[in-house]
Description:
Number of strands: 13
Bound molecules: pyridoxal-5'-phosphate
CATH topology of the largest domain: Aspartate Aminotransferase, domain 2
Radius of gyration: 24 Å
Amino acid sequence: MMNRIWLTLIMFSFLAGPVFADEIPKDRLDRFAAQVIDQGGRAIGYPANQDTGLKEFYQWYLGSGLYGVVMNNAGNPRKQSSYVMQTHQFENEVIDFFAPLYGFDPQDTWGIVTFSGTDGNNHGIYFGVKYLLAKTKMRPVIYVSADAHYSIKKLADLQNLEMKLVPTDRLGRMIIPEFEKALDPRKPALVVVAMGTTFKGAIDDQAAIDAVIKKINPPAVYRHLDAALFGGYLPFSVHKDIVNRKQVRFDSIAVSGHKFFGLDEPMGIFITTREVLNNQNPFNVAYLNDAVPTITCSRSALGALKFWWKVKKTGRAGYERQAAEILARTGYLKAALDKIGYPAWMNQYSNTVFFKRPGHGIMEKWGLAPEEDARLGGKLAHCIILQHATKKTIDLFIADLKSDMTRK
Ligand SMILES: *Cc1c(COP(=O)(O)O)cnc(C)c1O
């Protein structure tokens, strides 16, 4: 009896209209948006290209009516899925666009559009462990530089791996004799190569790492490239060989979509070989019509579609132009810092300049990230030059630094 009354009451409240719904406070949202957009022009402290240029995409999207349905890219994009409301065809074209740029052969490529660089690293480490297990029946030791992104350390912990953190030099590069000391000849090795560390933009010396591997000769080796930021522009630059697996050996690569490529939300790509994929021994999931190699089940269909749009719109020539521009402007920033005698450093092939940390006001105004390194005099900050950071922006930043110097 009581239940019936409750049920009637609940039904009544639904029929009576949206009792719990509230007016959307548009003013508040508009103020919030204006504030975020204003900060975008000065955002040179974090690796996000603020020139997204996605207006046309959103206009098309609204007109298409797709906002009214749920799409989901669950499953293997290279296999016919029984779930039809997905964008696998576009996802595959994104991977097909990038794979040859990193030296993967079209017939020997497998990859996905990920949720982020971290998601790509997670797949790289997971695939690496499974691959090495299949080859040697042993779990590997993971080797990564002390300057590598924290996500690698967290993911190694998550996957319960024995990890060896290899010390780095003052520019953030793995010290090769230390790697040699750490490398265990009895266990398979999963090496995560830093292709541009987050703070200093350091690139590990892949040829030297290879020479050590050859000398120590562990039972099997898997190399994953964490190229979250640098993997965006390097294949479009004159330095493209250092991310080309025909020139340097690696088994998988992860790149972020929201750093260089210009997507407006966290996204990325993960690419590996068929040989790696075929050594995963995944579980069969009948309702998705296949063995699913991905760690995540549901994946963003809208993200993959947006990525496809971005790649179509920009094209190889567009990204090549952007890569040349950001590298030239990074050089311009470094030269400007040198000219005013401000202590600053940068690595080869890098779009990241790090320097003595300025005053709090500058850190806040320009949205800079802090770091410390006693070898470089203590407190540091860095700038990451991406498409939206024009010469004018850099000049304004330098002018601020100059007045900060005279104030002290
Ligand atoms: C940004 C970054 C990551 C993390 O990528 P997300 O896309 O933010 O998850 C990993 N490694 C490096 C070197 C990075 O710069």
